[in-house]
Amino acid sequence: MRTRDPAGSRDSALAPLRHRPFRYLAIGRAATMLGNAVAPIALAFAVLDLTGSVRDLGLVVGARSLTHVLFLLFGGVLADRLPRQAVMVVSCTLAAVTQAAVAALVLTGSATIPALIALSALNGVLAAFAWPAAAALVPQTVPAELLQSANALNRLGTNAAMIGGASLGGVLVAGVGPGWGLAVDAGTFALAGLAFAGVRVAPVARRAAAERGNPLRDLREGWTEFVARSWVWVVVLGFLLINFAYTSSVNVLGPAVADETIGRTAWGLVLAAQTAGMVLGALVALRIRIRRLLLLGVFCMFADVLLLLGLAWVPSVAVLLVAAVVAGLAVEQFSVAWETSMQQNIPADRLARVYSYDALGSFLAIPLGQIAIGPLAETIGDRSTLLVAAGIVFVAVLGMLADPGVRGLSAHLPTREGTPAGEGTPTSKGTRLFAETPAPAESPVAGALPPSTRASSESGGAPVGGGPAAENV
Predict the structure, then answer these.
(1) What is the mean pLDDT of the chain?
(2) Is the per-residue pLDDT at 433 higher than 90?
(3) What gap in Å lies between CA 311 and CA 130, rounded to an integer?
(4) Based on the number of CB atoms within 10 Å of its own CB, is 1 exposed (0-12), middle (13-18) or buried (19 or more)?
């Protein structure tokens, strides 16, 4: 049921921008996404210019993906043990150094494949440490009632940066060479590090060092938190299937179908339309105020089926453009709903670890699907494979909707626009969501959500979550 925003203000969607820590966080995440959009283009042509080998390119790119997956869970442990903004600053600073080293090797003509593999692997480790920290930091920068708007603004900024970065990467590679594209990537990480240094928030209440034990114990605690709520693992499992089927279909079979039907230029327009739909979706998510936010987000994922059916049955430009825009708009509704649900319902001192388990499920599914879909398409044909993928997505969404937690979770809606996060914003039940510990003197906004204020049972509006692969930070 749609609920009117009690604040009743035209600019309530932009209220998170009134909080200085959130502004710095949003700038930092947009800067990293800008660089992450430039880097694949620049790195790909740098390797191809060096050896001309697609195999070598796969090794360089695969090294980053492998270390990212291997260290993701430990990144969540680190982000729950240390100040998250500090983790972000160190990660971005070191990422700037590694990318600057890659750029220097390429620009001086001294790059070798082993050196690029090593630096790419190191960059993957840094990304694994950074992402859980960045995602879990959002609730510390705004009141809980503004989390939906904050997540939508974050998505809007990162999507816009992705569009701009892809265009900038192409221009840089064509105009001045891939080495300079990699140098720009290093610069965006340095800029992000400066932005994250400006995020001053109150610390999250954590256990004493003696109580925390070793990292493996922290991982077990995070796993316990992850499986304690059915809505979390049900949606993560659902998106493991969706990412397995949908991402591989669009990225692998999509170009093959386009080559035989609408052509490569038109396929580029379809992908651009999907990104445009994501931007539009973030704008829509800024304004939506609905109690069953996660239910809406999960239901919207039926839109992915439309694009797969279009590729299988009606691969025309008009049909695919419309389906791509709808799919992009829909995935943003889920992304914002998922981020908001996680941040409002998972204990603050364990949030990064739960995020890392969520991301691990998503990241693992993508390469597995990309490996499996080619042989399947050779066996049963492109159309049949796309229909199978559409069926997997449809069943995955139905499975998520079947969970009572997904259907029953209620989101916190805005009550008082612009209340600073450090002032103990009350929930609708009268519980203070943010710690009474004051923020540092230089920070007017802060927030830390103690575990005691989080619902941990499945009854009475249990937390809901799960999610797609998030951007690499």
Answers:
(1) 80
(2) no
(3) 36
(4) exposed
Residues in the chain, total: 473
Work out the average pLDDT over 194-206. 82
Q: How far apart are CA 362 and CA 368, in angstroms?
A: 10
Measure the CA–CA gap between 274 and 272, rounded to whole angstroms.
5
Residue 194 confidence (pLDDT): 93
Single-letter amino acid code for the residue at 8: G
pLDDT at 256: 84
pLDDT on residue 397: 97
Residue 391 CA to its chain's centroid (Å): 25
Placement of tokens 């695919």 in the chain = 320
Phi, psi of 131 (to 5 degrees): -65, -50
Q: Which two tokens stand for residue 257?
A: 């179908």
* CA pair distance 159, 171, nearest whole angstrom: 19
CA dihedral of residues 154, 159, 160, 162 (deg, nearest 10): 130
Burial of 208 (0-12, 13-18, 19+ CB in 10 A): exposed
**3-class SS shares of the chain: helix, strand, coil, % to 5:** 75, 0, 25
Query: How far apart, in Å, are the Cα atoms of 41 and each of 104, 177, 418, 431?
Result: 17, 11, 40, 49
Q: Check whether 39 has a pLDDT greater than 90.
A: no
> What is the rounded CA–CA span in Å between residue 231 and residue 401?
10
What is the separation of C-alpha 37 from the centre of its chain, rounded to a whole number of angstroms? Answer: 14
76 token code pair: 């969540």
The structure's pTM equals: 0.74
C-alpha to C-alpha distances, 387 to 306, 315, 380, nearest whole angstrom? 11, 13, 11
Helix (H, G, I), strand (E, B) or coil at 316: coil
What sections of 228-316 are H helices per DSSP? 230-242, 248, 254-260, 264-287, 293-300, 303-313
CA dihedral 235, 236, 238, 241 (to 10 degrees): 170
- In SS3 terms, 270-283 reads as HHHHHHHHHHHHHH
Give 142-166 pLDDT, tens digit per residue. Answer: 888 888 888 889 888 888 888 888 7
CA distance 173 to 45: 8
Containing H/E element for 48?
A: helix 20-50
Task: Report yes or no: 129 and 73 within 8 Å, Cβ to Cβ.
Answer: no
pLDDT digits (tens, 9 = 90+) for 72-126: 888 888 888 888 888 989 999 999 999 999 999 999 998 898 999 899 889 889 8
Q: How far apart are CA 43 and CA 60, in angstroms?
A: 9
